[in-house]
Structure formats: structure tokens, C-alpha cells
Amino acid sequence: FSPGLLLVAGSFAAFRLLNRGLERLVPPPPSARRNRWKWRNIWTSLAHSALPGTHSPFPRRFCLHPGMSEDLVGTHPPGAHSLVAVSVGYFLEDFVDMLCNQKLHQSWELLFHHSVVIVCFGIAVLLHQYVGFALVALLVEINSIFLHLRQILLMANLVHTTCYRLNSIINLGTYVVFRIATLAWMTRWLFLNRENVPPATYAVGTVGMAIMTPMNIILFYRLLRSDFFK
């Protein structure tokens, strides 16, 4: 087994253990006790978002490793490969958790999303290439912090609070910057570098962007309608 695969397996086990113990660490409020697994699932997702959300962002990474801005295929800072491997382990754990605890018609969108991420990030982990590109993709986790906080506040029945309103505003702002703009930049990079990327990898990346972009635009519309135009 390569170190990358061992790290993926270790990450999967760690997030699984965290998921099992979260109910003791963060007891669900009365309003969330009917859906205890989802309460644990969201807190586990928040824990993952906080990890790449606080360690992957730029401009610090680009300042320390300026070669990344020109080469997202072979150039990446120390620790980036491990961070991507840890994320693969989390997405595998979340995939299994939803598959075991939620009906397929309720979770198929997220399962599909996770499948795309696992394949794309898995290629980066196995080949030790495109790690910089995966690191850019992890910028979306900055928004995921507020997206998961929104779900926690909803489950805790704290919708009509200043905290929820403030989080909704930050959530939409970071959604535009770290999801929609990031995906647009990644799509542009793929198009401009199509001659330098192997056809199979380019096809996987293109299909991934073609799937993720409309999914994120639809989710943005749902958030906007729910929190501001209800």
C-alpha cells in the first residue's frame, strides 16, 4: 500500500470514530433527537470543512510556492498531498454514512457529488499529480463551514435568530467567492491547459466540472430562495 492509500484508510477510520463519538461531545437538542444520525453527520462534515478550510487557502500557499500558479499538475506545497488524502477518506466515510442511514432518493445528489470528488481526488493521491488542482478545489470547504453551520442551526430550531441571519449572509457571500468563482476558475484552467493534460485525465476533469457547476448553481438558488425570498 502506498502512503497515500494508508492515509486515506486512516482518515476514513478517524472520521468514522469521530462520527460515533460526536453525540457525546455535542448532544443533540430536543428538536434534533428524531434524526440523531444526521446531527452526527453534519458535525462530522463541519470538522472536515474546518480542516482544509483553515489549511488550504491562498494567498499564503501561492506566496510560499509561486510555482503553483503556473503548474497545478506537478507542483504542490508540503502537506498538500496528505491534506487531499485526508479529504478522500472523509468523503468515503460520508458516502458510507449516508448510504447506510438515508434513503437513496433523499441522498442521491450528495452521493453523486461525493463519487465525483472521490474519483478526481483519488487520481491526485495515487499519481501524486494534480494535487495543486485538488488543493484549489478544497477552497470550497471555506464555504462549507457556514453551510454546515446553517444546517446545525436549522436542526437546533434557531432559524429566527441573529446568529442564523448573520450566518446566512456570510454563507451566500462565501458561496459566490469560494464555490461558484472557484469552479469557474478551475474550468477556465482546464480549458487553457487542455494540451498539457492527458486526454483521460482531461475528460475526468471536464465531466467533473460539468457536473459540479450546475449542482452548485442549483444549491445557491435554493439557499437564496429559502433564506431571503421565502
From TrEMBL:
For this UniProt record, give its keywords in alphabetical order, as a comma-separated list: Membrane, Transmembrane, Transmembrane helix
Q: Which PANTHER family match?
A: CT120 PROTEIN, TLC DOMAIN-CONTAINING PROTEIN 2
Q: Which gene encodes it?
A: Tlcd2
Output the GO biological process annotations, alphabetical, semicolon-separated.
membrane assembly; phospholipid homeostasis; plasma membrane organization; regulation of membrane lipid distribution
**Name of protein:** TLCD2 protein
Keyword set includes Transmembrane helix: yes
Q: Where does this one sit in the cell?
A: Membrane
**Annotated PROSITE patterns:** TLC (PS50922)
- Cellular component, GO annotation: plasma membrane
Predominant location: membrane
Q: Which stretches make up the TLC domain?
A: 34-230
Provide the transmembrane region boundaries. Answer: 133-149, 169-191, 203-224
- Highest taxon of source: Eukaryota
**Membrane topology category:** Multi-pass membrane protein
